[in-house]
Amino acid sequence: MWGRGWADVRPAETNHGKGTLTETLGIAGSGTIASGLAIVASASTDVVLWARSDASVERVNKAIAKGAPRFEGADADRIKVSTNLSALDSSTYLVEAIVEDHDSKAKLLADLAELTKHQGDETILSTTTSSLSIGELGKASGHPERFIGLHVFNPVPMMKLIEVVSSPETSAETKKRTLALCEQLNKVAVETPDTPGFVVNRLLFPYLFDAANFLAESGLEPKAVDDAMKLGAGLPMGPLALLDYVGLDVSKAIGDSLSLKTPANMEKLISEGALGKKAGRGFYDYAK
């Protein structure tokens, strides 16, 4: 869900996948996570990515064209982007990667299940959610036994971890194929329980929100707090910069799922539309 930017990555850290994928991969979504996953997979196989609109197609093609040359083995020509959902109908492994909203995801997952019903029980359905219940989304898909969480981290080409989240209904075969896919993508899979925040966000966001509260209490500048944590705790990114990188609106949604009270200074920034790096302003002003 979060991580270092491209500029922070040394060339030696790039890795391509381990051979040809055994799954036919389809990705429903056009955001940063979707494009990053497509770039990684393109090092091993052809990928089909669905985008909702022509504007989304243009945006994701730009992201792929920019990101693929920076990831060893990636081939932008192997990524087909389409606004036609039926382009995903031959996928054996589908990844839903749209907005972090239960109802939106539930509808799309049901549509994907209907689209691939001609394959019987072969197609696995998955989601990249960082905060929603895998059990509830699995029920919404209509096929909880072949539904699983595939929580990848941003930027996807650089971050090794994937949290693999199953519900009690997830079949052993679905888990097996998912773990194999992670290995073929050269990722480290950690199986986690279907609890709010899984592992990383469960432990990370109380710390991030505490940093935002401390900023208000101390009167320090964001850079002072971030420098202290980077230099004193050896972290690659300070907590306030990380909140901006994730997006303050997304961070609030994750905090809500963990029953965390959003810090007042974050609420104020969100109300002003200052959602972090993507908006040009958050705890930091990125227009400077």
Description:
By secondary structure, the protein is α/β, with parallel strands linked by helices. It folds into two domains: 6-192, 3-Layer(aba) Sandwich (Rossmann fold), CATH 3.40.50; 201-279, Orthogonal Bundle (N-(1-d-carboxylethyl)-l-norvaline Dehydrogenase, domain 2). The protein has helices at 32-41, 54-67, 102-115, 134-141, 172-184, 200-218, 222-233, 239-246, 248-257, 264-271; strands at 25-28, 47-50, 79-82, 93-96, 124-127, 147-152, 161-165, 188-192. An eight-stranded mixed β-sheet has the order 3-2-1-4-5-6-7-8, sandwiched between helices. Strand 7 (161-165), helix 5 and strand 8 form a beta-alpha-beta unit. It starts with 24 loop residues before the first strand and ends in a 17-residue tail after the last helix.
Give the SSE map.
Elements: E1 25-28, H1 32-41, E2 47-50, H2 54-67, E3 79-82, E4 93-96, H3 102-115, E5 124-127, H4 134-141, E6 147-152, E7 161-165, H5 172-184, E8 188-192, H6 200-218, H7 222-233, H8 239-246, H9 248-257, H10 264-271
Parallel strand pairs: 1-2, 1-4, 2-3, 4-5, 5-6, 7-8
Antiparallel strand pairs: 6-7
Helix pairs in contact: 1-2, 3-4, 6-8, 8-9
CATH superfamily of the largest domain: NAD(P)-binding Rossmann-like Domain
Cα distance spanning the termini: 26 Å
What would you call the structural class? alpha/beta
- The quaternary organization reads as single chain
User: Largest sheet, described in full?
Assistant: 8 strands, mixed
Shape summary: globular
In terms of per-residue confidence, which ranges show pLDDT below 50 for 5 or more consecutive residues?
2-17
Q: Identify the CATH class of the largest domain.
A: Alpha Beta
The pLDDT mean sits at 92
The fraction of residues in strands falls at 5-15%
In what order do the strands lie side by side in the largest sheet?
Answer: 3-2-1-4-5-6-7-8
CA-based gyration radius: 19 Å
Helix content: 40-55%
What's the helix count? Answer: 10
What is the H/E order? EHEHEEHEHEEHEHHHHH
The CATH topology of the largest domain is given as Rossmann fold
By DSSP, the count of extended strands is: 8
Write down the domain tally. 2
